[in-house]
Amino acid sequence: MPRIDIDAPGTSVLLLGNEAIARGALEAGVAFASSYPGNPSSEILETIVTVATERNIHAEWSVNEKVALEAAAGASFAGIRAMASMKQNGLNVASDFVSNLVMTGVGKGLVLVVCDDPGSLSSSSELDTRNLCKWMDIPLLEPSNSQEAKDMTKWAFDLSEELGTICMVHSVSRISHTRTNVKLGELPKTENKAYFTDIYDINKPGRGKFTTIAGPAELHNQLHQKLARALDKFESSPFNQYTGPDKAELLVITSGACVAYSAEAIAELKLENKVGVLKLGTTWPLPEKFVEKQLARSQKVLFVEEVDPFIERSVMELAANLPADSPHLTFYGKRSGHIRQYADLNPDLAANAIANIMGITYCPRDVHYDEEATELAKASPLRSLELCPGCPHRGTFWAIKEALRLDGRDGFAIGDVGCYSLGGFRSGYYQCRISNVMGSGAGISNGMGNLRQFGFDQPVIAVCGDSTFYHASVPALISAVYNKANFILMILDNSATAMTGFQPHPGTGKNAMGEITNIVDMETLCRSLGAHVDVCDSFDIKNTIATLLRLMAEGDGSKVVVMRHECELLRARREKKRPYQVHVDPDKCIGEACGCDRLCTREFGCPGLIWDKEAGKSKIDESVCSGCGLCVDVCPQGAIIKEAV
Amino acid sequence: MKVRGSKELLEEIIGSGLCVYCGACSGGCPYLAPYKGRVVLLHNCALSQGQCYQYCPQTYTDMDELSQQIFGVPYGQDEIGVARETLLARSTNAEIREKGQDGGVVTTILSLALDEGLIDCAVTSRMSVDKTPAGFLARNQEELLKCSTTSYEASPVLEAYNRIPKQSTEKLGVVGLPCQVRALAKMKAYPPENRVNVNNIKLVVGIFCGWALLPAEFHQFLTENYDLSQVVKFDIPHHPEHTFDVYTKSGKKSIEINEVRKFINPACSYCPDMVAEFADISVGSGRHKYKGWNTVIVRTKTGAELMELAKAKAALECQPLPDENLINLKQAALRKKKRALANIVAKTGSKKNLLYLGVSPALVNKLLT
Amino acid sequence: MRTLSKDPLNLIIAGVGGQGNVVMSLLIGNALVRQGYCVGVGDTFGASQRGGSVASHIRISDHTHYSSLIPSGHADIIVSLEPVEALRILGQFGNPDVVTITNVRPVYPPAVVSGLATYPDIDELLKAIKKLSARLETVNATDEAIKLGNPIFTNVIMMGALIGSGLLPLDKKSLEPILQEYFPKVFDMNMIAFNKGMELIGKG
Fold first, then answer.
1. Neighbours of B369 (CB within 10 A)
2. DSSP secondary structure of A132-154
């Protein structure tokens, strides 16, 4: 696979938006990169890791995004260009530090890359993090393709140093995970020396530059001045461009992924001569003079942007202050209902909005075909998210289900973010009844563990992943022990941050670079906090049930159960073969008869098992089965056979 | 009878306070499991008809049909059911007697049946260290002795029977309370599928029963008051005594019987069978001056042959059951039948709806007067 | 550089999460960039990889950078690793001129297996796909992959079929160096699978 650090300025390569961001950082001479896995941002750090050794870059998976940004800030304060990358939720975790960082300013260039997930393709919430820039006064750049992702990231380091403050590059799934042509730039050959200059000077004692207690108001004022300087630069930035007729019947103002959708929509509708596109790349602070000039091109303005009306509102604020004799502007966008205020957008939605305003109909394809295709396609069954064949969480949730049923006190599980979020879906038997953010399962259940005085006696099982545990659950466990909460935390240790791409974490013994490192042992940590710890194998359903029943019956105390079994996809990658060859013995399988009622395909639901309706027997789908053999223990008739390979 | 499925079993029986926790519905499939006094539905079974419903002793049972099948006579002709012979007996083995509840007859005849190869395995109830009873498969006298004495709690023995692998050819002797014996009779009448062959059961031993205690609640009560690991035996001496005795390694403690009656399973109040009428041999405790003996009712040819063998091998010491005892036994059995019928009719509000009991209207009227 | 039959040429690679869409689109995208085209490849990453429906949109143009998402009804070529996904994609992106190449082996969603949903009869399904396509090529890729030793070769076989169809301005020579660069250790096996795909579409 071609390296991201190829020294071939001017060549065109196909890069993911995230790869391009990494390349941009390399071209800017980044030497410290930190992150926490989060879709759609994970590939940024992973790309940098591939060249980190050769380019003398420190690249790490921090335990969470707050620490990641703090670590990057440390490098910046000590004179090293640094970048922290994360998804939308990660920004929330880091935001307390961000609010201080904007007060203190930075040392060398510090860039914050945030990748949103409009449409929540892989997120537990939908957020438009651009708003944080307005809230906390951060210069904001929105790339519209991989080329800009590279160029803007590179520029962001210079900008950060010139302004003396953190800058944000805002990406979305469709930019981060889309591959487009990128013309490469030059890679610098710099030597980086780290030294923190602002130490105590005995001759001139005074406060450190990077402290904020008692005095942020004045720093806030200074920050606004920095932003005024950013505004100057943005007014003439090549990232803001108008394309279209001098005078347009409709002016589309757009940014990010929507730039391409808008352009394509106008081409589809053949309105290139009537509709112009104002593409904005520097969206906070809004380059007001530049925008004002473009507003003069049309009396109708349509804002095409995803999720929040961020640019829409900024421009409306601007428009409110236009001279009284300016032509009246009609705005279309989220406020008018032309563009939805949730989920991701696409060329069709942009085309529908433009067509509506221009008074024409958008007909993407032949009407008869459209009717027929829509009708026939109804036969396609929907696919829900499923735990992979061989996933240890399947065994865990099956055990949780049975244990809670046996206990009989209306117990339930609480999950949060990761592959095990599927514990709230059919694949995980709908066991997780509450699910929010990283580590919230432990937090919520520790609260419920102190409701005894209100007659609460339902067993509550918090479920978190191994990476999540280090990321956010530890404080909740400390709080539980300290506040004497009745608390069971199951840590699903599959040796990976699996949902985001199998990144390592503090329990795996390997770091982002693949080097062997200290293991932060989960059991020891929990015991040292005062929790009682059991360790079970997710594939040993019987033992897991017995353990859970015992812990639930015991009553009070803070208890941890480590469910240890490697993620199947990790194992398969490494071992390249299945542990077992699994098949169903049709003579032993009793199918839908009393005594089974096809438990495996009707309830257990591993995708590797299918039901042969004609034969009335279950079967293994060999193109899907991972050969893990878990179903063997579930079959009540012993009809599923596993043979070691 | 219309056989229904697990959903109806849960609604009509388990959820309606009629479950006697016999285990007949469990062990043969992954859906139902007995646990701490409740029958739990672990996953949803979508079948509209199931063996769980079919063999539950609390779903419709045609008592005449069962009686005809086993004995060739209609149900209800005698208060204590078909009785070829009634007698008092006790084991001649001192260890069995010492460890037994009364006379050790059940352990003796099972042990004999195992020795003689009449059965390969006895399905009975055994208490764990903390005195929780559950089904157990005993294959020799040593294991049988571990099953001696009763907890007076309902024990889901039939779940252990249902779990026996379906290809097993072991000959079985099953010990059960009257409700469990009834369930077995239903299984023999309508042989189960995808389970161990019901014809493997060569011997059914029934235990006399007035009522059984709710396992979870009574167990909770015991744990609060006693160190159960020190308990050796429980016993309820006969009327006019009114205690529940707990024998520990250091002595005996007595609880007022009314304290214990609070834990009687309400479902038992609808049961007319005190003496396990569908068994081969039914065994209860001797009364008063026959403390340390068992009252035995021999019902079938199988039962009679085994009793003869026991006498011939001098495994049992026997004596005739005195008339007075027989009269008392019949009166007690009749009282239970009448009480049951009255409770059933009070619950349903109609003589026509007898819940699970399929008996002739003539018998109903007789018992209700 | 070969000329495109249409500009932009819109290709959708559809399948079920885990079948290897993303790898396929990566290889084809790279091969096209090496040939000098403007390429946009949009994938569904993340959670959908766990058994959900996934699709990669590939835009190919001589001169313009198009958005990664293909507008409704504008697919020119649909390649599907799973038959029901082909129908699903046709439902939204098909048009009377679309060419469809699909694997015929169903991947049953557990909802279907458990009885909560139905999977259409395979013959009816292929009939519907044919009805909605100007041309349909069916490929028994999974079975062939299993014959080669591992169902994981399904996507490489389908890639061979796509290249063999001549619909893209690519040939075997354009893919070989990409396969060598990205998966050097299994190059030989991949080429066997690739050639099989080309053969199955009638050009091997």
1. 6
2. HHHHHT--EE--SSHHHHHHHHH
β-partners of residue A275 are: A250
Q: Is residue B69 in a domain?
A: yes
- HSE-CB at C33 with a 13 A cutoff on CA atoms is 23
What is the number of domains present in chain A?
A: 4
Please tell me which of the candidates A405, A406, A594 has its beta carbon nearest to residue B50: A594
In a domain, A368, yes or no: no
Residue whose token pair is 């900024």: A314
CB-CB under 8 Å, B40 with A405: yes
The set of residues, in sequence order, having a beta carbon less than 8 Å from that of A340 and lying 6+ positions away, is: A334, A349
A1 has a pLDDT exceeding 80: no
Does the beta carbon of A603 lie under 8 angstroms from any beta carbon of chain B? yes
| Distance, CA of A290 to CA of A4 (rounded, Å) | 35
Smallest CA-to-CA distance from A465 within A484, A487, A493 is with A493
Answer whether A597 sits within 8 Å of B49, measured CB to CB.
Answer: no
What is d(CA A363, CA C67) in angstroms, rounded to the nearest whole number? 19
The residue segments making up the domain with residue B71 are 6-215+263-368
Q: Where are the domains of chain C?
A: 9-200
List per-residue pLDDT tens for chain B, 369 residues long.
789 999 999 999 999 999 999 999 999 999 999 999 999 999 999 999 999 999 999 999 999 999 999 999 999 989 999 999 999 999 999 999 999 999 999 999 999 999 999 999 999 999 988 888 999 999 999 999 999 999 999 999 999 999 999 999 999 999 999 999 999 999 999 999 999 999 999 999 999 999 999 999 999 999 998 888 889 999 998 878 899 999 998 999 999 999 999 999 999 999 999 999 999 999 999 887 898 999 999 999 999 999 999 999 999 999 999 999 999 999 999 999 999 999 999 999 998 889 999 998 889 888 888
Asked whether residue A512 falls in the same domain as residue A625, the answer is no
CB contact under 8 A, A590 and B194: yes
DSSP A177-218: TEEEEEE--PPP-------------TTS----TT--SS-HHH
Q: What is the pTM of this model?
A: 0.92
- CA A487 to chain B, closest CA, distance in angstroms equals 23
Question: Are residues A550 and A604 located together in one domain of the fold?
Answer: no
The whole domain housing A520 covers 392-574
Fold of C9-200: Pyruvate-ferredoxin Oxidoreductase; domain 3 (3.40.920)
Nearest to A139 by CA among A119, A164, A171, A122: A164
Rounded Cα distance, A583 and A62, in Å: 43
Nearest Cβ partner of A260 from C67, C90, C115? C67
Residue B234 — φ and ψ, nearest 5°?
A: -115, 145
CB pairs under 8 A between A and C: 216
Q: Judge if A82 and A187 occupy the same domain.
A: yes
Q: Is A104 left (phi over 0), alpha (psi -120 to 50) or beta?
A: alpha
C-alpha–C-alpha distance, residues A116 and A344, integer Å: 10
Residue pLDDT, tens place only, B312-324:
999 999 999 999 9
| Summary count for chain C: helices (H), strands (E) | 8, 6
Residues in chain B: 369
d(CA B353, CA C7): 80
On whether the CB atoms of residues A446 and A460 are closer than 8 A, the answer is no
DSSP string of A309-336, one letter each residue? -HHHHHHHHHHHTS-TTSPP-EEESTTT
Closest-approach residue (CA) in chain A for B54: A594
Domain for residue B245, yes or no? no
Interchain CB distance below 8 Å, A624 and C107: yes
The dihedral formed by the CA atoms of A346, A347, A353 and A358, expressed in degrees to the nearest 10: 170
Q: Which of B35, B40, B195 comes nearest A595 by C-beta?
A: B195
